[in-house]
Amino acid sequence: MRRKKKEFKLDDEMDITPMIDVTFLLLIFFMVTSKMNQVKGDLPPAKNGLGVNAKDAIVISVFNMDPDPEVYITMHKRVLGVAATAEEGPLALEQLTELVREEMAGNRRTVIIRADRDLASGFVEEVARAASEADPNLGTEEGLQFFVGVMDKPR
């Protein structure tokens, strides 16, 4: 009796499980080894004064970038009942005025300006002036309170 030879059938489908494994391994590798770039500023050290809760304040950060300084605003909001922090920038001074006005609508009356150590205090004054233009009650109890952290370079 003669035996029949088995014919091998080629599968029409390819097993992609190893490819998925390699893809996830590469994804995990790049997530672990990558760095998140943040704009770092050299803030002056606090020598005296009271601490201010940044969670309840409008925080404006000013960084000394080449060639022009950059202005960022950090906003703390509640999204679907969860606290969320968003940073917008770099901003023009006109945009800053509008964003401060929007934040004031949420009953925020404290403005913290965090300025880079190498930044001239004159630009910080311009930022404070732009933020104060959003407040019609400036100089009253209902008006904005400003807290500024800046130190001029020694001459």
Describe the structure in your own words:
- The chain is an alpha/beta fold.
- The protein has a domain at 54-149: 2-Layer Sandwich (Nucleotidyltransferase, domain 5), CATH 3.30.420.270.
- It is built from three helices and five strands; from the N terminus they run H-E-E-E-H-E-H-E.
- The chain has helices at residues 17-33, 93-105, 121-132; strands spanning 58-63, 70-79, 82-91, 110-115, 145-149.
- A five-stranded mixed sheet has the order 3-2-1-4-5.
- Helix 3 (121-132) links the parallel strand 4 (110-115) and strand 5 (145-149).
- Helix 2 (93-105) crosses helix 3.
- The longest helix is centred in the N-terminal third of the chain and has 17 residues, at 17-33.
- The model has no long low-confidence stretch (mean pLDDT 75).
Descriptors for this entry?
155 residues, alpha/beta, Nucleotidyltransferase, domain 5, 3 helices, 24% strand, elongated
**SSE topology string:** HEEEHEHE
Number of strands: 5
Kindly report the spatial arrangement of strands forming the biggest sheet.
3-2-1-4-5
Helix fraction, binned, reads: 25-40%
Tell me, what is the CATH class of the domain at 54-149? Answer: Alpha Beta
Radius of gyration: 27 Å
What share of residues are in beta strands? 15-25%
Terminus-to-terminus distance: 106 Å
CATH topology of the domain at 54-149: Nucleotidyltransferase, domain 5
Poorly predicted residue ranges = none
Global mean pLDDT: 75
Which word captures the global form?
elongated
- Helical/strand content category: alpha/beta
* CATH architectural name of the domain at 54-149: 2-Layer Sandwich
Helical run tally? 3
The largest sheet, given as strand count, sense and whether it forms a barrel, is: 5 strands, mixed
